[in-house]
Amino acid sequence: MVRLLLIVHFNDHTLPNQRAELFERAINALLQVDYLPDVEVINQLKAHSGPFREMAMHLAFHMHSQGQDQGREIGERALIRLLDAEPKFQSHRAAFVAQARQRGSLLEELDGQCRFIHLAFQEFLVAEYIWGVIGTDGCQAMVDTLNNRLDDPWWREPILLLAGYLGAKHSKWAELFIQGLGKAGEDANQRFAAVELAGMAALEWRESGDALKAECAKRIVELLGDKDGLSNSKPVIRARAGDRLAALGDPRFDPQRVYLPNDEWLGFVHIPADPDFIIGTLPEDFDRVMETVGASKDGKEFLKAEINDQPTPTREFYIARYPVTIAQFRAFVEATGFKLGREDALHDPDSRPVRWVSWREALTYCDWLNDALIKSPLAPLLQRGESTASRAATPCRQPDAPIHSRHGDADLPVCGLLPLIQSGNWRITLPSELEWEKAARGRLVGAVLPWGDKSDINKANYGYDIGDTSSVGCFPPNDYGLYDMVGNVWEWTRSLWGSDAQKPDFGYPYDLNDQKREDLKVGNDIYRVVRGGSWHYSQVNARCAVRYWYQPDDRDDNLGFRVFVVYSAPVV
Fold first, then answer.
1. CA 21 to CA 277: how far, in whole Å?
2. What is the pTM of this model?
3. Residue 119, Cβ neighbours under 10 Å: how many?
4. What is the architecture, at CATH level 2, of domain 261-567?
5. At residue 552, what are phi and psi to the nearest 5 degrees?
6. How confident is the prediction for the chain on average, in pLDDT?
7. How do beta strands 113-116 and 253-254 pair?
8. Domain map (residue ranges) of the chain
9. What is residue 397's predicted lDDT score, i.e. its pLDDT?
10. Model pLDDT for residues 25-38, shown as the tens digit of each residue
11. Do the Cβ atoms of 127 and 213 come closer than 8 Å?
């Protein structure tokens, strides 16, 4: 590739800004080979340069169509047969093959096998072929040609180079192609791959404009809202689409609301009280659960900390639909000038969960968010000083089920989250492990996972499949509509584990009257409970009942948090 840049600079004395332009100029230079010492050879090759380009395009597309395993080279005899099948190439074929034997040309030949001197040239010529040959039948013909290749990594670069080439040469075609690409795909996997490619193309094209980027972003959000599509597509491709969404501008989150979700409830979901809730794993179910998730002998011993058969009632609360994202945490840092303990906490794409955050940093964010919403100008009813009675007389759009606060003078239908917070009776903080597990299980009683008892790599980011965190919402929600409750990142809770990493001081049954198990003022030598597993833990830990621990000042690449709202929450 360094040689490619030198060739272009030598011929044009400048370098283009986009890859498609770069490859086009480099191929022109290699086909004309002005730098060869033999003037007669140069002139002969120049006479064939036009047909040579068409032949190279034809050859590249044919080779690439053979797939990654067989598409990098072609035997000389097969090459000759391929070119002779096109009458217009026959008179130039001998010169083309001769040039392939010339050192420094576009092709190279070794032991009867021909290949392009760099795969990037082959990929760009494939893009040129799709435009120059298939594109004569219209933009949709190009999209249709790629339809069954959208989720094949071998075709990723030709597709992006095609968009780049169109952007440099034919802007209207580029827009139509990217729009068509964003809607392409015959199954869920191909649809996610297609819209991610469309989003990447829109980002790389300097003149794409905000409207096209917004259209791509809207399409990604639409696909993320399809539960069946989430369950029937590859996590790696969805994760890539999620990162592209963050770069395009994620419309699920509102910058004017400190990047909380753009809805009346600011992304918080109501969880009803449950007088019969049982936290953990029943004794009679423990061996079955351990076998289901493939726990080791040592693992089973540690995981006995989750065994419990005593009910612990849960109160009603609201919990965030997603873990706290990079964008949300950055809003806090920028508003307060907060000094991060780890600078790379904000280095991921905006829609991924924040990580490298200590327990105290997470709690500080909760306090800031609570105060920010109390002071928010987004609750006009309270801002105008209207009475509780007048609010009660105002029709309110409720969530799926009517939500009522059952606490004192607030015993009225609630019109969104802000009135709750601004009443001073409800507060944002971290959930206890009891509240976290109630939310994680959805409406399933005793299930191993938020979706049931069967492991499914398509339903949570765990076990190294993606190899990193993923943008929130790339996996199906549980029955409460909560995303990423297991996998992605471990989530801090208020709850204490104790001083012994191997055996919790605060075990089960879960005693609601024990004020010490959620003491917010204990020192850093006492472990805090984290829940949910993460992207680089196996299914053993990515479950509803798993209890694990970190010290409050710990930071890790798999450790984040989620916030919740509760009546009369503890205050530091």
1. 62
2. 0.87
3. 14
4. Alpha-Beta Complex (3.90)
5. -55, -30
6. 87
7. unpaired
8. 2-125, 138-251, 261-567
9. 35
10. 777 777 665 544 55
11. no
